[in-house]
Amino acid sequence: MTTPTRTAVTTQVYRVYIKATPEAIWAAITQPEWTARYGYTGLVEYDLRPGGAYRVRPTEAFLAGARAKGNELPDVIIEGEVLEADPPRKLVTTFHMLMDPRVAAEAFTRITHEIRQGQDGVCSLTLTHELDGAPALAAIVSGAFEDQGAGGGHAWVLSDLKTLLETGKSFAN
User: Fold this and answer.
1) 3-state secondary structure string, the chain?
2) CATH classification code of 11-167
3) Per-residue pLDDT tens digits for 152-169
4) For the segment 55-103, what is each residue's pLDDT rounded down to a tens digit?
């Protein structure tokens, strides 16, 4: 007798509408001087060509916050590879969080950022995170641990990015 197996693919999709140009949104996603100002304040590094490296390093404030909670972080907290870069429209990378040993043991996942120009200076930014083989990461990026001080996941980060681009201030200001 054989037992059927099932492969579950978990995909999370988030969309936000931002009154900003596609170029401004692209910069906010791909440049460390922007990513240090919103969300979890990571310093991104992208080699924006297929096969190029993608890394996120913690800011000093991020490190201090983790230490205050008794957590030591590695120098690189997220690693991945650029699969596709079409500025300022689409960025596809692999994603592997290294901050927690349980999450680091999970598979690499895939994130797609899509920016679309709309009307009246408003663009949509859609983030699609394919999380097959990464249930712990799926819980984190969904915001499931927000009440435990882990942040609100992708929805919170995208909301903060929107706020920063539209007002010049992040949630922390």
Assistant:
1) CCCCCCCCCCEEEEEEEEECCHHHHHHHHHCHHHHCCCCCCEEEEECCCCCCEEEEEECHHHHHHHHHCCCCCCCCCEEEEEEEEECCCEEEEEEEECCCHHHHCCCCEEEEEEEEECCCCEEEEEEEEECCCCHHHHHHHCCCCHHHCCCCHHHHHHHHHHHHHHHCCCCCC
2) 3.30.530.20
3) 899 999 999 999 999 999
4) 999 999 899 988 998 989 999 999 999 999 999 999 999 999 999 899 9
Chain CA centroid to CA 35, Å? 10
User: CB–CB of 25/41 below 8 Å?
Assistant: no
Domain ranges of the chain: 11-167
Reading the block at residue 171, the tokens are 């949630």
Q: Which phi-psi region, left, alpha or beta, contains residue 86 (left: φ > 0; alpha: ψ -120 to 50)?
A: beta
Burial of 51 (0-12, 13-18, 19+ CB in 10 A): exposed
Give the residue from 171, 157, 168 showing the smallest Cα distance to 35.
157
